[in-house]
Description:
The structure is a single chain. The chain has 160 residues and is α+β, with helices and mostly antiparallel strands. The protein has a domain at 2-91. It has helices spanning 37-45, 48-55, 64-79, 92-118, 136-140; strands spanning 2-9, 14-23, 26-35, 86-91. Strands 3-2-1-4 form a four-stranded antiparallel beta sheet. Strand 2 and strand 3 form a beta hairpin. The chain is elongated. The two termini are 57 Å apart.
Amino acid sequence: MRQKYLIIPEKNSLTIKESSELDKGIFQQVEEITYDNHVIQVAKEGNIKKLVNALRTPVFYPVTYCATKLAESIVNIYKSTKNDPVEVVFSDIDQLSRDEDKDKSCDSDTSVAIDTLLDDSDSDNDNIEGDDLLKDDNIKGISSTIKIADEDDLVEDDEK
């Protein structure tokens, strides 16, 4: 599924229109949000993380990748002399393939970290506190039985 964002800079506000693709090439607007001068000031400062936080609302909360790209586009709008509307399009397929590439690059580091955690050769683990409780002598000395408080608690299956 693709999503399209139309960023419209105005004199004292900024409007973002979010549309989702219903069918190939057919988009439906799902959200329109207008921001005040505060967001414009943050955009002019150029702090992407701060702008992402300012853009997100309970109604409009794009994923981090999309929010970052939107914030970068907004900063570029206010850096340029033109204040023309900008269209930003995202594809879930592109995002998924980007995530898979990230996962593949982390696999070797992760396996090394897991191997380190699973390595039994550490001498620090030889003296675990309470380890002496597991010795056979301590287990043999335990004598306990299980007792049922009332015979009424027993359920018999008489329906067979």
